[in-house]
Amino acid sequence: TFESENPEKDVEEMCRRLLANPVIHTYSYEIERLGE
Known about the structure:
By secondary structure, the protein is mostly helical. It contains one helix and no strands. It has one domain (1-36). The chain has one helix at residues 7-19.
């Protein structure tokens, strides 16, 4: 599991580094809390 103080910031950084070339790609994401 992964827990973060600021999950939005972490996901944004991961997307920017790993998933998208911001010059030619756009992306979106949604964060959901699972199993409490």
